[in-house]
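Fold this sequence, please.
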Amino acid sequence: MPTIQILAIGDIVGPAAVDHIKQKLWKYRSENNIALVVANAENACTGNGLDPEAAQAILDSGVDVITSGNHIWQKKSIYITLDEKPEILRPANYPAGCPGNGYIKYLADGKIFLVMNVMGIIFTEPLDCPFNTVEEILKRESGNYDYAVLDVHAEATSEKIALAYYFDGRINVVFGTHTHVATADEQILPNGTGYITDVGMAGPINSALGIKTECIIERLRYKLPTKFEIAQNDIECDCALFVLDADSGRVVKVTRVKL
């Protein structure tokens, strides 16, 4: 059975994580015959956000499409780049006047991958409905792609799960980002969609979501403004590998891996 392999990389946190991916990804990608790599990079820079230099370094490291979330607007230098580089996405359910785009049709291995990015709206900003946003994209691009991939950048696990079931069988791969903690629920839904609630994080191992633990503890104990600093220790990169039947598009295997 011919297969297509798609790798999703969890939220990239800080410059050291970018360097880790630069050192590891191409080798892993070639050894595993991966057709498409998608990585969420909204926290790739110090102080959150993504700048043009970090974005280019990630793309040069073997990532095909960069997704993001609410922190994509942190560095204003990325605004023009979002318009110039369609392979860097911002969530599609932000207002139409925002820089960039929320999806791309990406050609790889002779196949067209429709890669989409949306923000959840539970416990976050009151953006457009992610269900309606994705529905509109699928309708607009119907017949123009071979496989569809969706990054749901959301706080609530229930929202991610609901989106995955709603689009089960219509989107080949749905994965969640934002919480930086890998979930153990990788699965294949009844109609063939591969799913995981959160891929996890590419960032420092001994940390609180990539931040020095003492910063988080101080903030939680005393409720005072605290400068968050990225932890400085060994990097671990959480990913999810989706294997698709190339003919039917159904996912046949989902595996959590560490790069």
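The helical segments are 15-31, 52-60, 78-84, 130-140, 157-166, 213-222. The chain has a mean pLDDT of 95.
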